[in-house]
Amino acid sequence: MSLPVLHLSGTPYKQGLRHGQVLQERIEHNLALYLERFQREGRLARPELLRRAARYLAALQGQSAEYFENLRGVAQGSGCDLVQLAALNLRYELLYYQFTQIALADGCEKQLDKEWLWRDRHVYLIDGSTLSMPDTPENQAAYPQQPQQQVGLGFPIARAVVLMSLASGMLMDMALGPYTGKQTGETALLRQLFDRFKPGDVLLADRYYCSYFMIALLQELGIDFVTRIHQLRTVDFRRGRRLGRGDHVVRWQRPKKPKWMDRQTYDRMPASIEVREVHVHVREPGFRTESFVVVTTLTDAAVYANEDIAELYHFRWQAELDIRAIKITMGMDVLRCKTPAMVRKEMWTCLLAYNLIRQTLLQSALKAGVSPRALSFTAALQSIAASWLVIVLSDDALAALLIDAASVRLAEHVVGHRPGRVEPRA
Length: 426
Hints:
Blueprint: H1 12-22, H2 24-40, H3 46-63, H4 65-78, H5 82-89, H6 91-110, E1 123-132, H7 137-142, E2 157-165, E3 171-178, H8 186-191, E4 202-204, H9 212-220, E5 224-228, E6 241-244, E7 247-253, H10 263-268, E8 272-281, E9 291-296, H11 306-314, H12 318-329, H13 340-368, H14 377-392, H15 396-410
Parallel strand pairs: 1-4, 4-5
Antiparallel strand pairs: 1-2, 2-3, 5-9, 6-7, 7-8, 8-9
Helix pairs in contact: 1-4, 2-5, 3-4, 3-5, 6-13, 13-14, 13-15, 14-15
């Protein structure tokens, strides 16, 4: 089958308009095909599909106006709905996202052993990282190189914010955007993931996310927050309601409206919020900070002692180790694809593989009665990769025996208890 070749010129909108006019039938066929696939294979209802596509369109308009205008021209030329075309443009991301989240992460999180949870609560880690990719015009347009680099001397770079389960290590979701531009920072990307939380969840983050409005927005969703105090905020333990030495509840006043927040959202924010500040002392050698202050909305000292808060924040570094497993162990620090669509497909495919390995570790941990965090991710990856050649040459009965044996062996690769060990980030 020969593919059509179009010679387009003019503005991005005019190019898209001509594209839509010439290939109208093909566009309509693909749109109908994938709308049905979203429902059948991805179990993605039409209203939710359109909601996600509309959110993508809004981000696209702010981050890549030319790309948006081109897509608007295709919609006008073909007579198709712009939001539905955005969903078609996102088909790989949407389907891989559904496979990654519905089939694995959410299902596994619901079946976690209660002993693996922190105080019977689901705790999630949030952190950001960057990824580079081949220097092509398409990638540069979607994910421009760092602005301080000269044109032609830098590689396209994307910013990713990942949401991880503290108990299982599974990736629950990811938000992706350019490294620079409006609404591309880590806090802005985190706000895109708010619909992934449920009331009663606990979010654990570093001090970059510590702000009045982040805490207020999370409280509005019924989510508790644990983070380190931002370096620009002053702490005075002589004020507020004293809970103990270096432990008090204090009230923060609402600051001025930030540029990124609309007036309606700002007006519904409370005039003040009550937070707990805990002075944490780290006496283990190897840690960079000897003492610091943790901020949390877990204000009930009778339920959560200051030692509990300190212990929980100690686990935040697991986010760095999980990102290192994804970027370094699985080789996703430098992507290989030459177009933005294929870059996103490559990322979601890698993350799907990551969650499949984590699922295998969960199964081994359940059988052995140990925490999945105690088992080695690298050993699991190596074991699964080494078994591929044997599995494909085995019949079903032998393959089942090999899988059971591998599950037992994985539980033997226990990560040693190494308090104070320096674990570099990716």
